[in-house]
Write a structure and sequence with these properties.
three-stranded antiparallel sheet; Butyryl-CoA Dehydrogenase, subunit A, domain 3; about 70% helix; 7 helices; about 220 residues; rod-shaped; 3 strands
């Protein structure tokens, strides 16, 4: 029994944390989930071959984001996607490890377009260098990175549009009874009727009712 209670105490925090993370992740919209997975996919495909070369004299070889003439660009692509992924991890865990000084949409816009620009530059460099080999080919790594970032930028655009639309609708929406703020105690006293006045009003009301009954 003691062993069961001990094991239960060890596994309970993990289950609670998993449920907490899962609940926070479910709160994200479809566009936000697409942005998350696009940057996670970019991190993954940085380790896949970006290009393959077959020199005239020598063995063919492949290079990923961390090798070759596009190493600096590949490292920047990897770091930017890591930064965006850390931003979403911050939101999933409900932490404040990295407070943003700009709006979330602006941060995601800049990160997405910067990734597309870096990947375009890397592709141009690889195509230019490939002319010096007998056979050169752009591989799936950089292609899937580019596709993932296009999906992420599209999702960011939809998220930004929905955010602006919700802000405009909330600005012009009339407050409902449930959303009205309650008056402060000082303001409530101005509308309260004194006890003596209430008794006098009740007395006059009963007197008027009696007179109407007699007539």
């Amino acid at each position: 029994m003691a062993l069961q209670m001990k094991n239960f105490g060890k596994t309970l925090p993990l289950k609670v944390n998993d449920a907490f993370v899962y609940r926070n992740f479910k709160k994200f919209s479809l566009e936000e989930k697409v942005i998350i997975f696009s940057h996670l996919a970019t991190i993954l495909f940085c380790f896949f071959p970006w290009t393959s070369h077959e020199p005239l004299y020598g063995e063919p070889y492949t290079q990923n984001a961390f090798g070759g003439p596009t190493m600096i660009i590949g490292v920047f692509v990897f770091l930017v996607s890591c930064a965006v992924s850390f931003f979403w991890l911050n939101k999933v865990l409900n932490k404040k490890w990295w407070p943003l000084r700009v709006s979330e949409n602006k941060f995601l816009w800049v990160a997405g377009w910067q990734q597309l620009l870096l990947l375009f530059c890397a592709t141009s460099v690889l195509l230019l260098i490939g002319r010096g080999f007998e056979n050169s080919e752009i591989r799936m790594g950089i292609s899937f990175c580019f596709i993932a970032q296009v999906a992420g930028v599209t999702a960011t655009f939809i998220r930004s549009r929905d955010t602006k639309r919700n802000e405009v609708m909330s600005f012009f929406q009339h407050p409902t009874r449930d959303t009205k703020t309650k008056p402060s105690p000082k303001a409530q006293k101005l509308f309260d009727i004194p006890a003596g006045a209430k008794k006098q009003i009740s007395k006059n009301h009963n007197k008027n009712c009696a007179q109407n009954t007699i007539h």
